Amino acid sequence: MAHTSTAANTAADTSVNTVEFGPATGLSCRECGALYDLGPIFACTECFGPLEVAYDFGEVRREDIASGPANIWRYRSLLPVPAGVAAKPNLQPGWTKLVKADRLAAELGLRSLHVKDDSGNPTHSFKDRVVAIALEAARNFGFHTLSCSSTGNLAGAVGAAAARAGLDSCVFIPADLEPAKVTMAAVYGGRLVAIDGNYDEVNRFCSELIGDELGEKWGFVNVNLRPFYAEGSKTLAYEIAEQLGWRLPDQIVIPVASGSQLTKIDKGFRELIKLGLVEERPYRIFGAQAEGCSPVSQAFKAGQDVVQPVRPDTIAKSLAIGNPADGPYVLDIARRTGGAVEDVNDQEVVEAIRLLARTEGVFAETAGGVTVGVLRKLVREGRLDPDAETVVLNTGDGLKTLDAVAEHARPAAVIRPSLDAFRAAFAN
Amino acid sequence: MAHTSTAANTAADTSVNTVEFGPATGLSCRECGALYDLGPIFACTECFGPLEVAYDFGEVRREDIASGPANIWRYRSLLPVPAGVAAKPNLQPGWTKLVKADRLAAELGLRSLHVKDDSGNPTHSFKDRVVAIALEAARNFGFHTLSCSSTGNLAGAVGAAAARAGLDSCVFIPADLEPAKVTMAAVYGGRLVAIDGNYDEVNRFCSELIGDELGEKWGFVNVNLRPFYAEGSKTLAYEIAEQLGWRLPDQIVIPVASGSQLTKIDKGFRELIKLGLVEERPYRIFGAQAEGCSPVSQAFKAGQDVVQPVRPDTIAKSLAIGNPADGPYVLDIARRTGGAVEDVNDQEVVEAIRLLARTEGVFAETAGGVTVGVLRKLVREGRLDPDAETVVLNTGDGLKTLDAVAEHARPAAVIRPSLDAFRAAFAN
């Protein structure tokens, strides 16, 4: 394989047996196409563009996938992981439910709607998917510590994955995080470090640490392992297609934080078409943001190609990335597929969480309120085809963002334990 | 089918097509064997003993089960549900992970250990299994409202299941419940009623309501639908056996609240043997309680057949039933199989939650701390065979009982975002 010299943004000197990365053949720059050997690197030394995994898939058959395990490893032949990954100690995320949402569809006026509910993952968010791929890369590179900067879901996913694998972990969070997220991040016994600063400062600190000997042999899942990590989101695309009966949906609503998940779902759909696993057909991808952190939505509406960073202010904290790395790619994909990027305000987020819970018994975190809220808005405005097969993502669990709905989810009455009291409280 | 007159403890006059209950043929008294037609009844009119579902299974084959859906409906031919249940709107619980717990096994000194992790259910506790069966019974009996008394897990499971099915729900809780449990119980939009009283008073009020016209056409999952509801726990036995490769474990540790779950797992194992789905072999069943609510454990240790009610005082609130209905059956089973009933104190519960999280990346609720704590105690005392295949249950999710571990799960340090500060905090 042709390749340039090893990118400079890593201190690790690793020799890698590519067999351990399954069908992955190298890393390629998404901007200039420069090729690199597989390694713990994330930016192109030529143009500073982001790197992504390149593959040589060979033949991949539906039957082989269908006979695989009920987790993301059924797609191991499409991921940068060793063939024996399913037997290794990891959290086995994925194969979450694609909920046929007939009652929500009826309320919204849609013919066919499914909710891809990733709250069913081991630590109850889609982050288990991406961390599982990063974990394999960390093992392959001989790293002993799994690390990340996080405001919540990722911290728990990294802590749990490292614990199961027997690796050390060191997770960095802003010091003012909600107590519930702190508890979950720390309970797995790894090192949890609170940084006296905001999330951006935590991020910058992590980048410093990667360049220092202190961070040697550390895999930062969302920094130096990011090309591998990001591939985990492709499994959402694979699962949705397989669960629909090896068919792509007509339209799909996906949350946008960094934008990585949306771009990888598009990549996954295109791979399935290319490999002949699904019939080629047009699909439309819609990105969803919270109004209080909607730089990509603003750029989409303004017809711009660049994304202006914003200072986040929204209850949808897991989507609160003011400077989304993959924002321009999201704009490309929404425009290319005939989709859009839209946003809803915090009140609409809460209404959507309650709507989804009331109609389908799915209790989503605020990010799920954002996608369902945007779905509702798009239908109301006639921008989604009500007769087309639609999928909306819920990427996390309501138990992690209880405060968002607490004031709306209270007892209807407090009564004495007597029939008279019950009758008095609820007589029509 | 021979049967006595309809039991008196229901106001409902229902005519039931037994086809809708699959292989179930009637209800039988666990004490005197009296037979009843299938109906929303729960106590024998002859001797006041509890009723359970009786079946005529016919032939059941492994292949048919294995080709079923990845939820409890793969076992529909062993449950009182219609053949088409999988296509109905319900939460599709079950088929949760049987986690190969090699790191925990190594710490405890066991050769082979699995954790059956029921936090993976839709509302993150095993209650989704039992409620799913009760929901089908409620539909069959033409009930319009799903109800229960609950201190937490059951309230969420009933609210969610009713929402998905499009039934009304009315859930009764003690008014002093933790805010997080209240939020989850109310978010699905059903009616949540707080009772100014303790759990026993809530229960008594529900029994009154069943006899009143106010409760007509209401299915109280854990009262008038209890015989159906309880059958849901058999699916834990089926899944464990199938996931072990159609083999029974040698020893299993199960939490004891009412005791129903333990008795139904034993029933499930015996059914599998009788149907030839697994090889007959001895298995030992161990019950686990929290010291602050250990009436069954106390009776076991004292060699008694009766269970003296206690006033619960433990952090394991989901197991805090001071007067467990199935206590005597639990004693029978533990003694018959060569097992035991044991308890651990609240500190041991917390230690066990942290041990499981640290070794396997599984964050259990307090009930899981009870089972893992009892497992550890039994191994230390030489009462479990360390070379035998062992399974331990985690029946709920740590996110619901965060307070139990919050003081032990905190950041190791709070530092400024600089390498010097990191070095100063963590230099060895």
Summarize the topology.
The structure is a homodimer of 428-residue chains.
Chain A lengths: L23 E6 L5 E2 L14 E5 L6 H5 L31 E3 L1 H7 L3 E6 L9 H14 L4 E5 L3 H13 L2 E7 L4 H8 L4 E5 L3 H13 L6 E3 L5 H6 L2 H10 L7 E5 L4 H15 L9 E7 L4 H8 L24 H11 L2 E5 L1 H15 L5 H15 L8 E6 L8 H4 L6 E3 L3 H8 L2
Parallel strand pairs in A: 5-13, 6-7, 6-9, 7-8, 10-11, 10-13, 11-12
Antiparallel strand pairs in A: 1-2, 1-3, 4-5
- Which series of helices and strands of chain A comes N to C? EEEHEHEHEHEHEHEHHEHEHHEHHEHEH
Number of contiguous helices of chain A: 15
The amount of helix of chain A comes to 25-40%
Whole-number count of domains of chain A: 2
Major sheet of chain A: order of its strands?
A: 4-5-13-10-11-12
Largest sheet of chain A: 6 strands, mixed
Number of strands of chain A: 14
CATH architecture title of the largest domain in chain A: 3-Layer(aba) Sandwich
What is the C-alpha radius of gyration of chain A, as a whole number of Å? 22 Å
Give the oligomeric state.
homodimer
What integer is the average pLDDT of chain A?
93
User: Given the C-alpha coordinates, what overall shape of chain A results?
Assistant: globular
CATH fold-level assignment of the largest domain in chain A: Rossmann fold
- CATH class label of the largest domain in chain A: Alpha Beta
Query: How much of the polypeptide of chain A forms β-strand, as a percent range?
Result: 15-25%
Largest inter-chain interface?
A-B, 80 and 80 residues
